[in-house]
Specification:
The chain has 211 residues and is an alpha+beta fold. It is built from 5 helices and 9 strands, in the order ββαααβββαβαβββ. The longest helix is centred in the first third of the chain and has 18 residues. The chain binds coenzyme A. One of its GO terms (cellular component) is cytoplasm.
Length: 211
């Protein structure tokens, strides 16, 4: 394994998880907490996040609160969803979210969003790279899959740059706030080649700390 011992022995089989952090020295991934509620609520006002994700719309502060204290906390506690806030490693500012929805039997869904001001610099590429390192490293998953509503080019570009193979389009295959939309699907297997960006990924694997 590329990560220090964590109490997880062998492939993760489901069940409670202790939070862990991931960093490459530029971005820091740490589960969001109560102190992040206002920032998440502010960022989720972004029209693109509301257009392309399944966050509530309109988005209220209470939505951010229940996300952090409910979905995020329960997700880690039950091992069903592992969500991290994407932060600037230097200042700690929260600039986005990335997560794995654990499907069971070695498969998980990758999801993400970024603050508008953090886009266009490869921040999500770094965050996704760290999450995939964990997925195929310490979690020993066999497969990570990605879905996006058809037309979400920036999301598809992030997935394809990370090595995902877009496998097709599911007509009305996705649901957004009760309404069906066409979606793209893609996957990356543990056995697939992942593109390496020279100088960007620490050769010995990213540092990981227990939370
Ligand atoms: C999807 C989303 C996270 C992508 O953000 P992004 O800024 O394009 O992604 P990255 O941080 O990886 O940056 C990639 C951009 O930085 C550029 N870049 C610069 N340095 C880079 C590097 N080292 N590595 C990768 N890209 C780099 C890329 O060329 C790309 O810019 P371009 O789109 O002009 O070609 C963002 O558009 C978003 O939050 N959208 C709304 C929510 C959403 O759609 N979520 C996904 C739902 S499925």
């Amino acid at each position: 394994m590329r990560f220090p011992a964590t109490g997880v022995t062998g492939a993760w089989q489901g069940g409670p998880m202790r939070t862990f952090e991931l960093t490459d020295g530029v971005v820091l991934l740490r589960a969001p907490g109560a102190a992040d509620v206002d920032r998440i609520a502010a960022l989720c006002q972004d029209p693109a996040i509301q257009e392309w994700t399944t966050v509530p719309s309109p988005y209220a502060r209470a939505d951010a609160e229940s996300y952090v204290t409910g979905m995020v906390a329960d997700g880690w506690a039950n091992g069903t969803q592992l969500n991290w806030a994407v932060r600037d490693a230097a200042g700690g500012t929260l600039v986005g979210m990335v997560g794995l929805g654990m499907e069971g039997a070695g498969s998980a869904e990758l999801g993400y969003w970024l603050a508008p001001e953090a886009r266009g610099r490869g921040v999500m590429a770094r965050a996704v790279d760290l999450v995939l390192d964990a997925a195929f490293g310490r979690l020993e998953l066999a497969r990570v899959f990605w879905r996006a509503f058809v037309g979400n080019g920036p999301s598809r570009a992030v997935a394809e740059r990370a090595g995902f193979r877009v496998e097709g389009e599911l007509r009305l295959g996705g649901v957004q706030r009760g309404v069906r939309r066409d979606e793209w699907v893609g996957s990356l297997l543990a056995t697939d080649d992942r593109p390496r960006r020279v100088g960007e990924r620490p050769a010995a694997g990213a540092a990981a700390r227990e939370g």
